[in-house]
Amino acid sequence: AKGMECKAGVLPKVAELIQRDYDKKWFSDATIRTVEGEALRLIHDGVSPFKVELANYLKNVAAINDKYKGEIDKLTVISEQSIAGVITTNYDSFLEEHFVGFKKYVGQSELIFSPIQGVAEIYKIHGSVEMPDSIVINEDDYVSFQEKSAYLAAKLMTIFMEYPIVFIGYSIGDSN
Fold this sequence. Notes:
Elements: H1 10-28, H2 38-44, H3 49-61, H4 69-81, E1 85-88, H5 94-98, E2 103-106, H6 107-113, E3 121-124, H7 139-147, H8 149-162, E4 165-167
Parallel strand pairs: 1-3, 1-4, 2-3
Helix pairs in contact: 1-7, 2-3
């Protein structure tokens, strides 16, 4: 990847290369498939097997460490009393599971084109495991994200000025 043109950085290029190889292998070797039902329908409809399998993996591997249960319970209480909204780049469903009653917006389109209420909202700007095609992970995803980022930045600035927001996110060299 380092020797190739990287329009969005090296890591999105690496993800693109992994996705390309994985998708090809997924279609030629049924032994690597782990999804069924609705997930297979998504792939049949054109969603990348890599994204569908990644979403499935993240759903299944996510576990709460018991030593943090007290902290998570406190976060849940705080979300009910003090948090108007959350903007995150996380794909997992931790926030939806612990911030009861919050409306979730997935991806830039939902955030940009939806009227915000400013109360009990989660903005998942890099997608969600619940919608594998929304996951921003490869070079094309990041290029598309960056092309729309001016609109997203304007919407986020409006949100920041009008409502108290908590940002919860993590990254491995992600400029977003």
